[in-house]
User: What shape does this take?
Amino acid sequence: MSRLRLGVPLSLSGKHDRFGKQAGLGLEVWRSFNESVEVIVEDDRSDPEVLERVLRGLSSRCDILLGPYSTQLMRRAGQVATELDRLIWNHGGSGDDVETAHPGHVVSVLTPTSWYAEPFIRQVARGPLWVAEGKGSFGRQVAEGAERCAEEFGIRVVRIRPGDALPSVQDDPWSLLCAGSFAEDVEVIKRARADGPRVICAVAAGVREFGEAVGDPRGIYGVGQWFPGGGGEAAIGMSERDFVNAYWDRAGALPDYPAVQAAATAIIAAHGVARAGSTGRAELWSVATDLETSTLFGAFKIDPSTGAQVGHRTALIRWESDGPRPL
Assistant: This one.
């Protein structure tokens, strides 16, 4: 088979550019280890309308399509993939509805949003648990999943929006889970510090920029799709160690999960094409539904009826004086 062309729309500008640029660098690192694939990245500017135009253009000239970063943008990408009868490999949209909306056209690598809080609730949280959910569907789905998981442990959940009042220091000890945008999580945590929750966890705390944003992150827990040391052994593709070292050489910093999940998705997509001997949607879907493996990102297995990820689980970390550490 001739050299494959892998196309991916990423937010190199706009509100998601912090994560889109990381994903792009992750793909660049992966590409340096794989000369059989050409990677074509185009800026979707964090805009659904631009994303659709970019994705349609990439589809016309690329063998493999990866999705954008963000659940909102991936929601539109799934619709486009269905209209074009293409398969799109989803590395950037973990929303439950996004992962299951287009069976046969979307294969997801990420832990679904409703399972984000599971490791925090199982290992750390104590009631009552206040959940500050963001404005969009991502926050709502994290909060709903946290509430279901907390019920198993008899933990009472109080759901609020980022601007709502928090308990006072005079109230019974309470825990806080923030599930909004990066900015929303940081704002809630800064306010909460004065109110004395016994433990704080945030989705935003799963990336390294969080430390600078809040000033003193010590003791705060974070959840994310990946953290260094959490990927385990890779059955296919490059090892976590090789990726992390190569990323450090280029960026002078450790990667966050947007970079790793993009690289892992490219690994799985290229592996799928090799196994299928085809870039056709139906052939790739058949291979994907049969595949149970692992990459530097962790486990991979999808629900064959929906395309949702059922093998991978989020990682839990805790910020210490020398930085974040996996649990």
